[in-house]
Automatic annotation (TrEMBL), chain A:
Superkingdom of the source species: Archaea
Major site of localization recorded for this protein: membrane
Family: Belongs to the ABC transporter superfamily.
Gene Ontology molecular functions: ATP binding; ATP hydrolysis activity
Higher taxonomy: Archaea, Methanobacteriati, Methanobacteriota, Stenosarchaea group, Halobacteria
UniProt xrefs under CDD domains: ABC_NikE_OppD_transporters (cd03257)
Pfam families hit by this protein: ABC_tran, oligo_HPY
Keyword Heme: no
Gene Ontology terms: cellular component: plasma membrane
ABC transporter domain boundaries: 18-270
Keywords, in A-Z order: ATP-binding, Cell inner membrane, Cell membrane, Membrane, Nucleotide-binding, Transport
Protein name, per record: ATP-binding cassette domain-containing protein
Subcellular location: Cell inner membrane
PROSITE patterns given in the database record: ABC_TRANSPORTER_1, ABC_TRANSPORTER_2
Automatic annotation (TrEMBL), chain B:
GO MF term set: ATP binding; ATP hydrolysis activity
Keywords: ATP-binding, Cell membrane, Membrane, Nucleotide-binding, Transport
Protein topology in the membrane: Peripheral membrane protein
ABC transporter domain residues: 21-269
Protein name: Dipeptide/oligopeptide/nickel ABC transporter ATP-binding protein
Keyword Nucleotide-binding carried by entry: yes
Domain of life: Archaea
InterPro entries named among the record's database cross-references: AAA+_ATPase, ABC_Ni/Peptide_Import, ABC_transporter-like_ATP-bd, ABC_transporter-like_CS, Oligopep_ABC_C, P-loop_NTPase
An annotated GO cellular component: plasma membrane
GO aspect biological process, one term: peptide transport
Main location: membrane
Length: 349, 358
């Protein structure tokens, strides 16, 4: 295995939530990410899935150096990003180089594109940063060919438009082009296809995967939709990481996580993913609908308050990750000899 | 070609409709552009009908039309008859303002995407319920008892939710509270336009299960509008597919999923990422749907359709009867079975014996 592009080790991101008009008490701590280790390899496609509030966006932003971890390390090709950023590293790397290598596209591309500039101008900016010596016509040619590549024909016509003259899908393609023109090592796609119609998602993912091969880049793909994560990560030979309340419940090769989910929470997400089989999907496999407050996460295994398989033992200790083939699973059920098996089932009455 | 033997009809009727939509159109620009184009549709009493369409297919316009709430300066034509459990039918488009206001909450209630924009951020949830009850001259005490029960039905803690302001609740809680509010005046029909679209999948699926329970408990009829075909397939009894401001296919959910008989519906099914279909067979639909000012002649899907022929370019197809109450607005629906295989079905299920389809 070659060295990972990004390596996160035991990363924690805790936010102090200062409460107005509540001076006497200690500030509340939101444990958005709480002890996650994960690598992003060259040409990797890592999908992070989970509910709203599970910490997947915070983890993604931490991985590309936009969010500072309160504990643990984030390394870019072996060098600690935050030491470089603060000038405490003797590595032969500048923060500005790393920042260029790690790009992001958002769920709402409209808000990330300057409404007062035409696409040609919006897309010239990254080229100017990466290749200051390019002539004007070279820049234009590159932009036109990339626009054509993402299906925006005729490119000259599109390049002359303002963002408001584009559909949602077209804006997202422009955001992707802009990220790619920086020649990045990693692109964080934060719910980048969630706002598109279901019927347009495959097309957008195919395009991202095609361009990945061409531009030699990795993706961190954040989604609440397991079927999109499967499509994206399986095609890119990557992994799916399932997050729950700031922690990785399960991570492994995409098809294995989908077809042989080991963690009860992954099974719940699988249940929640619509398919076309029309089988009766039966009762909700969770004991509670709403995710607990990350300010005060449950003791023990964080999923025990909703888990259909929770037992008494799950309330006492937080399971660390067990190896299961190529998967890593944070659940006591992986250990045949664990006291879990002898402890009574949890009920809500 | 076997077209001449096909039975066809202008609309697929049901036995006991609670709402009958006939030839509903919405035009802008003095009738030059249609954003809803001659839709005829029955909503059966007690059923859940899923209406599926992409952005800009006219599905939200259909929801607005049902309650005569088309945004200005749109012009709505056609008839929309409401058949209450007892009493005479009324054409919703003939009602005066006062009667329409009563009908909108007490008979037919609506839930939209994004609860935050439906709530007043400066009012507690309790006040929303009380004001709604008062505005319709309902007994507030009895109404609040119903509110408690509805909130519990939706897995919410009534006292906590009622004393909260909207922003103090999570997105999933807000949307469930909004559903409870929409049912507090005991309507017969609940119309929902992308009611779960802004939520994560787990919450969407949970809400769908709860809607199914509510439908049984309160004898509701539901119309659920979405772009997400697989999502609503788990809930709906029947499905109606819209394309370019028209209804193009309607039938029992099982029929639509396994025997879709319109090339667009079949392409739509194949373009949907899911956990079961072989990865390499999922593919996007080529091309784009037309804008209202640029509607092609004939079948609006013909520029994208692999089966299009001369007739499709000049004539708008009405509903060809595929089987029972399954209708497809396509001249070549039979050919679509062979031409466009459904990738989510196992190989053995894909070929449908012709004899079984009529």
């Amino acid at each position: 295995m070659s060295e990972p592009v990004i390596s996160l080790e035991n990363v924690e991101v805790h936010f102090e939530n200062e409460r107005l008009l509540d001076f006497g008490n200690d500030p509340e701590t939101v444990r958005a990410v709480d002890g996650v280790s994960v690598d992003v390899a060259e040409n990797d496609v890592l999908s992070l899935v989970g509910e709203s509030g599970c910490g997947k966006t915070t983890l993604g932003k931490t991985a590309i150096g936009l969010q500072r971890p309160t504990h643990g390390s984030v390394k870019y090709r072996g060098h600690d990003i935050w030491e470089i950023r603060e000038g405490n590293s003797d590595a032969d790397l500048e923060w500005s180089d790393i920042r260029t290598s790690l790009q992001i596209i958002h769920q709402d591309p409209g808000s990330a594109l300057n409404p007062n500039r035409r696409l040609l101008s919006i897309l010239s900016e990254p080229l100017r940063q990466v290749n200051p010596d390019l002539s004007k016509s070279e820049k234009r040619n590159r932009i036109y060919s990339l626009l054509e590549r993402v299906g925006m024909n005729p490119a000259a016509d599109f390049a002359d438009r303002y963002p408001h003259q584009l559909s949602g899908g077209e804006k997202q393609r422009v955001a992707l082009c802009r990220a790619l023109l920086m020649n990045p090592d990693v692109i964080l796609a934060d719910e980048a296809i969630s706002a598109l119609d279901v019927s347009l998602r495959v097309e957008m993912m195919d395009m991202m995967l095609d361009l990945q091969a061409e531009f030699d880049t990795s993706f961190v793909f954040i989604s609440h939709d397991l079927s999109n994560a499967r499509y994206f990560s399986s095609h890119g030979n990557g992994k799916i990481g399932v997050m729950y309340l700031g922690q990785l419940a399960e991570i492994g090769p995409a098809e294995q996580v989908i077809n042989e989910p080991q963690h009860p929470y992954t099974e719940v997400l699988r249940w929640a993913t619509p398919d076309l089989s029309l089988d009766d999907h039966g009762e909700m496999p969770m004991r509670k609908i709403d995710i607990p407050d990350p300010i005060n996460p449950p003791s023990g295994c964080r999923f025990h308050t909703r888990c259909p398989k929770a037992r008494e033992a799950c309330t006492r200790a937080n399971p660390t990750a067990y190896e299961h083939g190529e998967q890593r699973v944070a659940c006591f059920r992986e250990d045949d000899t664990h006291e879990y098996w002898d402890s009574p089932e949890l009920t809500d009455d | 070609m076997t077209q001449s033997h096909d039975q066809h009809t202008e609309h697929i009727a049901v036995d006991d409709p609670i709402i009958e939509v006939r030839d509903a159109s919405v035009t802008y620009d003095e009738g030059t552009s249609y954003v809803l184009d001659g839709v005829s549709l029955d909503l059966g009493r007690g059923e859940i009908l899923g209406v599926v369409g992409e952005s800009g297919s006219g599905k939200s316009m259909l929801a607005s039309a049902l309650l005569d709430a088309v945004p200005d300066p749109g012009l709505l034509s056609g008839t929309i008859e409401y058949h209450p459990d007892s009493g005479a039918a009324t054409d919703i488009l003939e009602l005066d303002t006062e009667d329409l206001r009563a009908l909108r909450w007490e008979e037919i209630s609506m839930v939209f995407q994004g609860a935050m924009s439906s709530f007043n951020p400066t009012m507690s949830l309790r006040k929303h319920f009380v004001e709604t009850l008062e505005a319709h001259d309902e007994d507030v005490e009895a109404g609040m008892d119903r509110a408690h029960e509805l909130l519990e039905d939706l897995y919410l803690e009534p006292d906590r939710v009622l004393s909260s302001y909207p922003h103090e609740l999570s997105g999933g809680m807000q949307q469930r509270a909004l559903i409870a509010l929409s049912l507090v005046l005991e309507p017969e029909v609940l119309v929902m336009d992308e009611p779960t679209a802004a939520l994560d999948l787990l919450m969407q699926r949970s809400i769908l299960l709860l809607l199914d329970d509510l439908k049984e408990k309160y004898d509701l009829t539901m119309l659920f509008i979405t772009h997400d075909l697989p999502l609503v397939a788990a809930l709906a009894d029947r499905m109606a597919i819209m394309y370019a401001f028209r209804l193009i296919e309607i039938g029992q959910t099982e029929e639509i999923i396994n025997h879709a008989a319109h090339p667009y519906t079949r392409a739509l099914l194949n373009s949907t990422p899911n956990l079961d279909a072989p990865l390499e067979e999922m593919r996007p639909i080529e091309g784009q749907s037309p804008a209202p000012i640029n509607m092609p002649d004939g079948c609006a899907y013909h520029p994208r359709c692999p089966l299009a022929e001369d007739q499709c370019r000049t004539e708008v197809p009405d509903f060809h009867i595929v089987a029972g109450d399954h209708g497809s607005a396509c001249f070549n629906w039979r050919e679509s079975y062979d031409e466009i295989e459904l990738v989510h079905l196992d190989d053995g299920e894909r070929a449908i014996p012709e004899g079984d389809r009529q």
